[in-house]
Design goal:
The protein has 295 residues and is of the alpha+beta class. The chain has 7 helices and 12 strands.
Length: 295
């Protein structure tokens, strides 16, 4: 059986798709291991135009698992304050300790509570989000990745840059950036074509940042810069978030570079991963956007 979801890659990010997959996975095992009736979707499949439309929420309330049923009913009862949202997230987290496939539901409620959380409660939730991708045995390699550099005056050294193997969206590592007193962080020149539409996408996680206007991409030639596109980053958000913009390269474009105002950060940490610059034709222009190259 193969499941595909519109707009999703290998890992599901949208809550409704996560619920849909969880229910169907349980039905699959119930049929083969518990002699439950064979679900209709296993017998007849699902027409392409109907995929993902099945409402699975009521099935949680019909569960014979009393704890799961109680949680589903608590969701239906409604939660609006940060305390209620946090409490519901904590209940799902506790349930998921024995049923890991439901951890995504805890994170969904934590995301809703996050904007209003402060102090110890906020840091506890941050730690839980980091635990998803944390590799405590990973190394932190100081300095910019090979495809990146810092514009500095002679004799100055880069600050606050590292390839981080402890936290990554995919692969083994990400690019960790903290404030610096000098320099402008940039990528090396990457080839581009003029009068083309490009999709720029990346995954980002932040901690303690105050500004979203730190990153951008510039199209230009060897002689001059032609067009700058800002890329807004989430502020103090402890889960990997996809960011995407569409940019049009102006006439006479021959290359592009990413710029990040490291001196403007003032405080906090940014992690970047899986950066992509792709043309409509599908060709990838970004060199080592996953920060796996150590050469």
């Amino acid at each position: 059986y193969m499941f595909t979801y519109n707009g999703e890659k290998h890992g599901l990010r949208q809550r409704e798709n996560q619920k849909h997959w969880t229910v169907h996975l349980a039905e699959y095992f119930d049929y083969f291991l518990k002699e439950a009736p064979k679900p209709d979707w296993m017998e007849h499949g699902v027409p392409y135009l109907e995929k993902g439309k099945r409402d699975v929420t009521p099935l949680f309330k019909k569960s014979t698992d009393v704890s799961l049923k109680t949680l589903a009913e608590a969701e239906d009862a409604g939660s609006s304050t940060k305390e209620e949202l946090l409490a519901l997230g904590d209940k799902w987290w506790t349930y998921a300790e024995k049923n890991p496939k439901f951890k995504s539901r805890a994170f969904d409620w934590y995301k809703r509570a996050w904007p209003g959380l402060t102090g110890i409660a906020r840091e506890k939730v941050r730690t839980k989000f980091h635990s998803i991708t944390l590799n405590p045995k990973g190394k932190v390699i100081e300095g910019p990745p090979p495809a990146w550099g810092v514009v500095l005056s002679p004799g100055e050294k880069s600050e606050g840059l590292a390839t981080d193997e402890t936290l990554a969206h995919s692969g083994k590592s990400s690019f960790r950036i903290t404030p610096a007193t000098k320099g402008m962080l940039v990528t090396h020149h990457n080839k581009a074509t003029d009068n083309r539409e490009y999709e720029i996408s990346l995954w980002v996680m932040t901690q303690g940042t105050k500004s979203s206007a730190l990153l951008g991409i510039k199209f230009g030639s060897d002689e001059k810069e032609l067009k700058y596109y800002p890329i807004d980053l989430p502020v103090d958000q402890p889960w990997w978030t996809p960011v995407k913009i569409i940019a049009q390269s102006p006439p006479d474009t021959t290359m592009f570079r990413f710029f990040l105002g490291q001196t403007a950060m003032k405080e906090g940490t940014i992690w970047l991963d899986d950066i992509s610059v792709r043309s409509k034709a599908g060709s990838e222009l970004m060199v080592d956007g996953g920060f796996e190259d150590r050469k």
